[in-house]
Design brief:
The chain has 315 residues and is an alpha/beta fold. It contains eight helices and 14 strands. The chain has two domains: 203 residues, Ribonuclease Z/Hydroxyacylglutathione hydrolase-like (Metallo-beta-lactamase, Chain A), CATH 3.60.15.10; 71 residues, no CATH class. It has an eight-stranded mixed β-sheet with strand order 1-2-3-4-5-6-7-8. A six-stranded mixed β-sheet has the order 9-10-11-12-13-14, covered by helices on one side. The longest helix has 27 residues. The radius of gyration is 21 Å and the shape is elongated. The protein binds zinc ion (ZN). Zinc ion binds next to loops.
């Protein structure tokens, strides 16, 4: 049964030789918590989405023949809801949990979600847990890397690692749904939303390189950790956003005059005024193309601060 309905818009456009397609996700909700704090959507082929509404989190889980793989427990408070959500669509036990990356706001609570599950993660996630000494995050049992496959009794999840991006341990996961291939790229792709604030823990150059590699994958849909699914064009949208921001900042920098300063205090004060002017101008350049994305006015200037630092210092 097709559970993601695809709308093809402009496919028959007669004035252009290029067919423009846009797919729109239509949720097939199959379960909801009594307090409306969570819901489950069925994507077909054993792939489901758990949404925790109060915090706008979304995690995919895959139901195989007698076992379940769950991506990211989210938190100690959310994990029991996630467990109940999975139990609402299958009686199979959660045997596998995958940590998408090392950030604590996605991976605390695996022992609550399923104490018996085998935990999968990138070696970078294990390295972070050991470096930080996190005692409330069970360590991964199985380390996975680019090209690996995780089997879930009759189904499989592909593992992709493109190097550092939103963090340095992010793996993207590919899985087959009833409407094509889905790429889960938590926090690295968020559909219709500007990247979060000052891009904490982000390697900007690696982010761009990762998106370039992800764009080569043959996938139909993408899912973040807070939004989606959306059509795979969102890989290109994010890539173009970063490339356009780089260009906008370089242009704005060239067009903005920084007056000479007479003292250290003056250097700092003038420098901050100059930076504010460059950022504002760069965001103005981006607004016609990206201004309709959620969070643009609040976060694009903060994104620009970090991308400008990357341009200046090279990292
Ligand atoms: Zn993160």
């Amino acid at each position: 049964m097709k559970i993601i309905h695809i709308l093809l818009l402009g496919l028959l456009c007669c004035t252009s030789s290029v067919a423009v397609t846009a797919q729109q996700y239509m949720a097939n909700e199959v379960a909801r918590g009594d307090d409306n704090s969570w819901s489950v959507e069925d994507l077909g082929e054993g792939v489901y989405l758990f949404r925790w509404w109060p915090g706008f989190y979304v995690s995919a889980f895959v139901v195989g023949d007698g076992e379940v793989l769950a991506v990211d427990p989210v938190s100690r408070d959310v994990a029991p809801l996630y467990r109940a959500a999975i139990a609402s669509v299958t009686s199979a036990p959660i045997t596998k949990i995958v940590y998408s990356h090392d950030h604590r706001d996605h991976i605390v609570g695996a022992d609550v979600l399923s104490p018996e599950a085998e935990i999968y993660a990138h070696p970078g996630t294990l390295a972070s847990l050991e470096r930080r000494g996190d005692t409330d995050v069970p360590k991964p049992d199985v380390l996975v890397n680019n090209g690996d496959t995780i089997d879930i009794a009759g189904r499989s999840v592909g593992v992709h690692y493109f190097g550092p991006n939103h963090g340095d341990s992010n793996i993207a996961l590919s899985m087959t749904t009833g409407s094509g291939e889905l790429l889960v790229f938590v926090d690295t792709l968020e559909i219709g939303i500007v990247p979060y604030r000052t891009l904490p823990d982000t390697n900007v150059q690696g982010y761009i390189a990762s998106l370039q590699q992800a764009a080569k994958l043959d996938v139909d849909w993408v899912l973040g950790g807070h939004s989606g699914p959306g059509p795979a064009v969102w890989i290109d949208n994010y890539l173009n956003y970063f490339l356009d921001m780089e260009k906008a900042l370089i242009k704005a920098e060239a067009e903005t005059i920084e007056p000479p300063s007479a003292s250290v205090e003056d250097v700092i004060a003038q420098g901050e005024r100059y930076t504010d002017a460059v950022i504002a101008k760069a965001v103005d350049y981006l607004r016609p193309t990206y201004g309709h994305w959620s969070g643009f006015e609040a976060w694009a200037p903060l994104n620009a601060q970090t991308v400008r630092m990357y341009i200046i210092i090279g990292n």
